[in-house]
Design a protein that fits this description.
globular, Arc Repressor Mutant, subunit A, two-stranded antiparallel sheet, 26 helices
Length: about 525
């Protein structure tokens, strides 16, 4: 293999050989723009050179519809190119160019406020996760304290949103430990993200200390935006402690700032958290009003991630107030929004609530599986379960253990650890169907126009009566086939019939088609 690679390399023009070896600076794939930045002028025309490398099978081209093409080397080819780079004496320069390029990318995409941001930005950073790691390590070896701190600060939001909380905390901690004592904007941004990742990693003392240190830095720098972002983290710390009045005051100060700037996305996020604070203060009406205002802002922006977060909050409120079908529907509704955004830090949040509902309607195995999925996600990301999600988790765990016994619970919990978002959605569909069925009294035909059917069951019956298959019904209602089968079983039981044809006849007689 090495001889074949060397033979292909020797066929390249001199400029193409320079490009080839300098591409060894990348970890993982790269774009044309990145190749041009790292190769420099000596690498010639990067596009033409990449074409030659692709023709010689030294570089592969990966093109996804609607996305910028990316290039990559096989590991054996990369090892050969790296040897060539080190032998040329150009490795240090190529490494500096590589680190400078990815620092610029990360800072260009780093958000300047809380709130919605394009998923494409996160996708771009995710595609270059290994390159960002390599750039950080090079900056650490090079003793470039300021650039290292800037890169860590710029990556903080990405590490959080894509579930790299443990890695983010470690890198931010390392960058801050090696930083000088002087207050700078980069240090303030790094402290903000170090504090927020500590918070979501369930280390509240560290979050509070880092948040206060960040606030002091921004006061010294004299940047009001940085100061408000530091207040945001400190408000979250107070919220997680259940110190509602203190949290309300800090969020209120932050809200006024974002409203004055017209940053509607940031306003929506703060309103969401104020809704949780109002609920903690015992004012559910105000909590819903605040969340409804946030929903309107996120809907106008078309942001699925934060709309999903709103559903997770509304599910929490509904469950606490005994409106279980509404709670189940909200919890189920937020999963596709989180999944579409590639979210990893929030996507597990409805699972403990769904697990508690599963126990309530006699589905303890489903509850245990969802708790297993929750624990696996927390372990993968380095996150901790927020305090306001813990009561549902604890109720679900106690109920599932009591129903299944220790061995049964352990088996279902272990199975749940291997489930993914599509499996969670299927479990959610089953739970929603069971909760809706349990909430409606079963009445025989003739005592009511719909025989006690839920709204969802009426939809299923109408499609069934129109001759649609279970798969057709699932596709039309965005359900799993298994959930459709559960709904049909409930429909037949409520109608007092044993076949689809009899259910179809009932639907025709009662004008449901």
């Amino acid at each position: 293999m090495r001889e074949a690679i060397a033979w292909s390399h020797d066929l390249l023009a001199p400029g193409e050989q320079v490009l080839f070896r300098r591409l060894a600076a990348f970890a993982g794939g790269f774009t044309l723009e990145a190749a041009e930045a790292v190769a420099g002028e000596a690498g010639g025309d990067a596009l033409e050179g990449l074409g030659a490398l692709v023709d010689q099978s030294l570089v592969g081209r990966q093109a996804d519809a609607g996305r910028e093409p990316r290039y990559a080397m096989l590991e054996t080819v990369h090892e050969f190119a790296l040897e060539m780079l080190e032998a040329s004496g150009e490795a240090e320069d190529a490494g500096r160019r590589h680190a400078a390029f990815f620092l610029a990318v990360a800072e260009r995409l780093a958000p300047a406020h809380v709130g919605p941001h394009p998923v494409a930005w996160l996708d771009r950073l995710a595609a270059d996760h290994d390159n960002l790691r390599a750039a950080f390590e090079l900056l650490c070896r090079a003793g470039a304290a300021a650039a290292r701190l800037r890169l860590a600060a710029a990556c903080g939001w990405y590490w959080f949103r894509r579930g790299h909380i443990g890695e983010g905390r470690a890198r931010l901690g390392r960058a801050l430990a090696l930083a000088g004592p002087e207050p700078t904007a980069a240090k303030g941004r790094a402290l903000r993200w170090a504090a927020e990742l500590a918070l979501w990693g369930d280390d509240l003392p560290a979050a509070a200390a880092l948040g206060r240190e960040g606030l002091a830095v921004w006061d010294a720098v004299g940047d009001p935006r940085g100061r408000v972002l530091a207040l945001h983290v400190l408000a979250l710390v107070e919220q997680h402690h259940g110190r509602w009045d203190e949290a309300a005051a800090l969020f209120g100060e932050e809200l006024a700032y974002w409203r004055e700037l017209g940053e509607t996305g940031a306003v929506g996020v703060v309103l969401m958290f104020l809704g949780m604070v109002a609920y903690g203060q015992g004012d559910p009406a105000r909590a819903r009003a605040l969340v409804d205002e946030a929903v309107a802002l996120f809907r106008a922006a078309g942001d699925r991630t934060w709309l999903a977060a709103m559903d997770a909050y509304l599910g929490l409120f509904a469950a606490a107030e005994g409106r279980l079908p509404e709670a189940a529907g909200c919890y189920r509704a937020c999963l596709p929004g989180f999944a579409a955004a590639g979210d990893a830090s929030f996507i597990y949040t409805p699972l403990p609530g769904l697990a508690a509902l599963a126990v309530a309607v006699g589905l303890p195995e489903a509850a245990a599986r969802l708790l297993g999925a929750t624990d696996a996600q927390l372990q993968r990301t380095g996150a901790g379960l927020p305090p306001f999600r813990r009561p549902a988790y604890e109720r679900a765990e106690a109920g599932a253990r009591a129903a299944l016994g220790e061995a049964g619970f352990a088996a279902a919990h272990a199975a749940g650890r291997g489930l993914g978002p599509e499996d969670w959605l299927a479990e959610a569909d089953r739970i929603v169907a069971a909760v809706e069925a349990a909430a409606q009294p079963v009445r025989p035909p003739g005592t009511g126009a719909q025989a006690g059917l839920t709204a969802r069951e009426v939809e299923v019956l109408r499609l069934l009566a129109a001759g649609h298959s279970n798969q057709d019904i699932a596709d039309a209602l965005f359900l799993s086939v298994g959930t459709v089968k559960v709904h049909i079983t409930h429909v037949l039981a409520k109608l007092g019939v044993k076949s689809r044809s009899a259910a179809t006849d009932y639907a025709h007689r009662h004008g449901l088609t």
